[in-house]
Amino acid sequence: MGKLDVSLLQYITKEDFRVLIAVEMGMKNHELVPGPLVAQLANLRSGGVFKKLRNELCQNRLAAYERGKHYDGYRLTNLGYDFLALKCLSVRGSVVGVGSQIGVGKESDIYVVKGQNDRMLCMKIHRLGRTSFRKLKEKRDFHHGREMSWIYLNRLSATKEFAYMKALHQRGFPVPEPIDANRHCVIMELVNGYQLQQVHDLKDPAQLYSDLMELIVQFANNGVIHSDFNEFNVMITDQDKPIIIDFPQMVSTNHMNAKMYFDRDVQCIITFFKRRYGYESELYPDFDKDVERIYDLDKEVAASGYSREVNAFDDMIGKQNKDDEDDEEEEEEDSD
């Protein structure tokens, strides 16, 4: 882990950003964006665009030129996409400085950033595709016949997370306060605590176990299921109070597999507490008996203006997960 070097950001001109945005727009439907299309989308002279791409943006690793099977073209790098998001967040005043990296996962990078009034915040950069969804590159045409890029997938993931975090925070759930989002970056409150998987001693394991099970039920009572409720996505404060993070996998209780996701969340907590703290309880929630919907938080998110992006992300991930399961079954049959 280190620091995201944003020193170059101050030297990027408006024309540079126009070219980067043009490449971004082209990548919605192309893995590699042809140079003439970049010039057309940027509404700049072709000669000037090629010079900026080759001599400035590619040399600074904000874009990359590659030779494809059928044609050559440009793509944004992770750093280039980071710069586009940070530029917008800085213009809005949500981020005025970037600090050190404090976390890294298979699907995200986490940084400390400075917001308004020197408030220290957390920036989550979605990095789907690093190790997950391994077949997506070969199956880019599964969403309404369009080819999907990592950039689009990460933007949808961040949009969904911000939408659910905002709705949950407004309902009083123990989640980080959402501040802002742009593209694949989500700015939120910096939680003063530790991941549950880092905590080896608890004052009262039974109380925390009960609190977490109650949260799973309260999520469901409000119409949503976390779907990834485990020791990596539960933060613990110094008072042993839980704060829940990471919401891209959240689903509605109306989902066809809602009970399976609910039971999986419950089992993750049961298994972890038994393994880590030696704590076992006969009490755990049942989806059919203990869930009673009292609020339609899932419908609230759908009506919030984020529904198109959230549904698109869910469609893609659902399709990808099914394809991966089918591939794993085929591999098992071949091994037999």
From TrEMBL:
<keyword id="KW-0808">Transferase</keyword>
<dbReference type="InterPro" id="IPR000687">
    <property type="entry name" value="RIO_kinase"/>
</dbReference>
<keyword id="KW-0418">Kinase</keyword>
<dbReference type="InterPro" id="IPR036388">
    <property type="entry name" value="WH-like_DNA-bd_sf"/>
</dbReference>
<comment type="similarity">
    <text>Belongs to the protein kinase superfamily. RIO-type Ser/Thr kinase family.</text>
</comment>
<keyword id="KW-0547">Nucleotide-binding</keyword>
<comment type="subunit">
    <text>Associated with late 40S pre-ribosomal particles. Interacts with PLK1 (via its N-terminus).</text>
</comment>
<dbReference type="GO" id="GO:0005524">
    <property type="term" value="F:ATP binding"/>
</dbReference>
<dbReference type="InterPro" id="IPR011009">
    <property type="entry name" value="Kinase-like_dom_sf"/>
</dbReference>
<keyword id="KW-0067">ATP-binding</keyword>
<dbReference type="InterPro" id="IPR036390">
    <property type="entry name" value="WH_DNA-bd_sf"/>
</dbReference>
<dbReference type="InterPro" id="IPR015285">
    <property type="entry name" value="RIO2_wHTH_N"/>
</dbReference>
<keyword id="KW-0479">Metal-binding</keyword>
<dbReference type="GO" id="GO:0005634">
    <property type="term" value="C:nucleus"/>
</dbReference>
<dbReference type="Pfam" id="PF01163">
    <property type="entry name" value="RIO1"/>
</dbReference>
<dbReference type="InterPro" id="IPR018934">
    <property type="entry name" value="RIO_dom"/>
</dbReference>
<protein>
    <recommendedName>
        <fullName>Serine/threonine-protein kinase RIO2</fullName>
        <ecNumber>2.7.11.1</ecNumber>
    </recommendedName>
</protein>
<keyword id="KW-0460">Magnesium</keyword>
<keyword id="KW-0723">Serine/threonine-protein kinase</keyword>
<feature type="compositionally biased region" description="Acidic residues">
    <location>
        <begin position="323"/>
        <end position="336"/>
    </location>
</feature>
<feature type="domain" description="RIO kinase">
    <location>
        <begin position="67"/>
        <end position="296"/>
    </location>
</feature>
<dbReference type="Pfam" id="PF09202">
    <property type="entry name" value="Rio2_N"/>
</dbReference>
<dbReference type="GO" id="GO:0030688">
    <property type="term" value="C:preribosome, small subunit precursor"/>
</dbReference>
<dbReference type="GO" id="GO:0004674">
    <property type="term" value="F:protein serine/threonine kinase activity"/>
</dbReference>
<feature type="region of interest" description="Disordered">
    <location>
        <begin position="312"/>
        <end position="336"/>
    </location>
</feature>
<keyword id="KW-0597">Phosphoprotein</keyword>
<dbReference type="GO" id="GO:0046872">
    <property type="term" value="F:metal ion binding"/>
</dbReference>
<keyword id="KW-0963">Cytoplasm</keyword>
<dbReference type="InterPro" id="IPR030484">
    <property type="entry name" value="Rio2"/>
</dbReference>
<dbReference type="GO" id="GO:0030490">
    <property type="term" value="P:maturation of SSU-rRNA"/>
</dbReference>
<keyword id="KW-0690">Ribosome biogenesis</keyword>
<dbReference type="GO" id="GO:0005829">
    <property type="term" value="C:cytosol"/>
</dbReference>
